[in-house]
Amino acid sequence: MRSLRIRSALRAVVTAAVALVVAGGLLAAGAQAPVVADGGAGARAVATAEYDLGDAAFTDPESGTVSEVRAVVHYPRHLTGKLPLIVMSHGSWYACDSEDADTWPCPAGSRPYPSYRGYDYLGAELAARGFVVVSLSADGINMTSFDYGDRARLINEHLRLWQELADGKGGPLKGRFTDPETGRKVAPAFAGHVDMHWVGTLGHSRGGKGVMWQASDKHRAEWPAGVRVRAVLGLAPVKFDDPEGDNSDTLITKLPFAVVTGSCDGAVHEAGQEYLDDVAGRNTRTDFSVSLLHANHNYYNTAWTPPASLGEDDSTCPAQELTPAHQQDALTAYAVAFYRYELYGDRSGLPTLTGHRPLPGATGTTRVVPAAVRP
């Protein structure tokens, strides 16, 4: 990977340890953030559902990679109006719950590993603040492919299915939602209540490069009809160009994006900050950078975090690292502020992102260009 170049004049680099800045005030880590209300309402009650179309439900039209179509959905229990959709994609981890599994679908005696459930804490917080949040499974890709286009096209397949559902056309998702706890069928009233013109994406690790690929100038024409991505968050994303020096597959100059990294990340370090270097002087939209002091790579995903069955602590500074709860709370604060700003035009969380009221030890400045505001 190329050496990391920091351009503080173009973005904020904010360090986070045990305190969080939310909506203009300081909160102890783990505290409930003040809710930025929609229409004067308080925090919304949240419901959870899953859909599972099978381990071989999607065959990539370009690579032939066979993937599952499986996801967990967090959403406001009482759906009113048309809400933005956020799609989250995990990165490369064990595809099956047996370390010896080497085929997809998983061999007998092994089951798909639930990496997609590792962001439930974040999905629930975003849903409480007015979003429908889909965290998709990519175990088939993890087992069989290193193609980031596969990750982008799997995201597009989920978006295509949601576009059909949101438009009232039904499609393959109609009647396929279940309660994750009981397995019983549920029927959330998503039709007419999901705005596919206001979509956010989040990708962790290899999924981070996947969302950058999906949203890039080069690949945005591949978005499903009726879908418009408006905000992208790369979470501890991998960063390497293939071929070296050619960043066209992930270059985003036409929409806002944020990058969140950790100073003790033992997997990819802070190379993801280079995505902002690539667009220096070229992206006229908002971009934000957050570097979490003493954060590692895996704690953002609870399924990758001990004591999860295959969890690991990858920290390069174990004596100083944040607890999983602190790291997840920090991500939640920044992610909520970012998506509320970009998808609702809500500026009350800007101190979190810009460092105008910084955390202890925060450095850097930011360039903030007003984003499109939802009507």
Outline the structure in words.
By secondary structure, this protein is of the alpha/beta class. It has a domain of 248 residues: Alpha/Beta hydrolase fold, catalytic domain (Rossmann fold, 3-Layer(aba) Sandwich), CATH 3.40.50. It is 20% helix and 20% strand. The protein is built from 7 helices and 15 strands. The strands form 4 sheets. Strands 10-4-7-9-8-11-12-13-14 form a 9-stranded mixed sheet, with helices on both faces. It has a two-stranded antiparallel ribbon with strand order 1-15. β8, α1 and β9 form a beta-alpha-beta unit. The longest helix is centred in the C-terminal third of the chain and has 21 residues. The N terminus and C terminus are likely disordered.
Q: Report the end-to-end length measured between terminal Cα atoms.
A: 41 Å
CATH homologous superfamily caption of the domain at 41-275 and 295-307:
Alpha/Beta hydrolase fold, catalytic domain
Estimated helix fraction: 10-25%
Q: Provide mean pLDDT, rounded.
A: 85
Strand content: 15-25%
**What is the CATH architecture term of the domain at 41-275 and 295-307?**
3-Layer(aba) Sandwich
Categorize the overall geometry: globular
Secondary-structure element order, N to C = EEEEEEEEHEHHEEHEEHEHHE
As laid out across the biggest beta sheet, the strand order is 10-4-7-9-8-11-12-13-14
The residue ranges in which pLDDT falls below 50 over 5 or more consecutive positions are 1-41, 356-375
Helical stretch tally: 7
Largest sheet: 9 strands, mixed
Number of strands: 15
CATH topology of the domain at 41-275 and 295-307: Rossmann fold
Please state the structural category.
alpha/beta
Signal peptide: 1-33
Protein name: Alpha/beta hydrolase
InterPro entries: AB_hydrolase_fold
Keywords: Signal
